[in-house]
Amino acid sequence: MSTTQTRSAKDPKPSDAVEVATGEAESSAGPKPSGIKGLIDWVLHSKPVRVFQNYGNNGGPLLASGMSYQAVFAIFAALAAAFSIFGLALAGNPQLQAAIFEQINTSVPGLIGPNGAIHPDALTSATPALGWTGVIAIAGLIFTAVGFLGSTRSAIRLIFNLPGPKTNFVLLKLKDFGLAIAFAILLLISAALSIASSSALGFVFGLFGWDQSSVAGQVIARIIGLVVVYIFDTVVLAGVYRILSGVPIPFRQLAPGAALGAVVMGVLKVLGSSLLGGATSNPLLASFAVIIGILIWFNLICQVLLIFASWIEVSMQDAHIDPRNLTPEQAEREALQAEAEAHRTALAAQRTQVAAELERAHGLRRTNLRRALRRLDRELAREPAAAVIEPSSSATPPEVARG
Is the distance from CB of 177 to CB of 269 less than 8 angstroms? Predict the structure, then answer.
């Protein structure tokens, strides 16, 4: 028996009917417009335009503004908590401490430095958390820092048109705390890689007798540093999109989105001083120019974060992947509900038309219309109400599930 015969032997599903109807609609749409109209149509349906439409329609700019505002408090709280706990350990390794400061300044220009928002001595001389007072203070700082991760999760899920997770609040906070520790470990690894790459570069230059302070040496060192930062940003973005948000994103859509987002973030970091220099040079803002610059910077980064979340969401739409992670039974039930809702809408429209004709009809025609109206009322009463489809509790992407 052929594949066509096998398919025809199966019972048709509502989802099959929807696909057939969509195909017929596309085939009957006629030839695509040409000329200026065709160019406009192509631009409107291009992926970048759809990404920004999805980003704007879901309140992306407003979400990014709220995230950036909370990020300012979170970064100061995170640094205060981290150096209060691990300050003594870092004080014994000045090279690692300098690499961490450089890595943080690359991610947030102007945050740490003699003229930055935080002087390095203020961090290195932080008093360790001793006693109940110190523990409570550190707990408050950690809760503030972790709160930013919760806001980021909610914003990304809104970009994907998903409700908030139904996980217990305490478990969510524990998850955020674990992710914060993971990001801190990644920062340490990135700083260690920066130190290792500089040492390896000095060793290679020494073998060939080259001057590491030459222009070529500085360019190579800068390129290696940017590659390390790019890898760090890609891993962090992938973790934010997939693990923090809890959205089941397949790797095929996740990897390009995280990689492109890291490229844009890298460009922003390279141009960070130039971008913020003009915004903070206003003499009216001199007293708090650094804080204004950091707030602007976080707004740019949060917008990039959400724009590429929208890119991933549009990529999943193009691949016909539902981010709600419905099971086949749930998807079939949703298709049945869509068909039932369409049938109910058609009955309601027909009833409205019959009721309007009934007001103008006379004699036998009026009697027939009354009978038709009662029949439509009975059919509408028999139509079941649409139930809410809950997404699957599993957060395994389709590609992983198939494995």
Answer: no
Per DSSP, the residues of 302-315 read HHHHHHHHHHHHHH
Domain housing 100: 53-318
| Residue pLDDT, tens place only, 230-253 | 888 899 999 999 998 989 999 999
- 125 and 66 in one domain? yes
d(CA 297, CA 305): 12
Q: What is the DSSP string of 89-137?
A: HHHT-HHHHHHHHHHHHHHSTTSBSTTSSB-HHHHHTPPP--HHHHHHH
Cα 91–chain centre separation = 36
Under 8 Å between Cβ of 35 and 270:
no
Using an 8 Å Cβ cutoff, are 273 and 293 in contact? no
In a domain, 17, yes or no: no
pLDDT tens for each residue of 296-355: 889 999 999 999 999 999 999 998 888 877 666 766 777 778 788 888 888 888 889 888
Max CA pair span of the chain: 109
3-state SS of 182-231 is HHHHHHHHHHHHHHHHHHHHHHHHHHHCCCCCCHHHHHHHHHHHHHHHHH
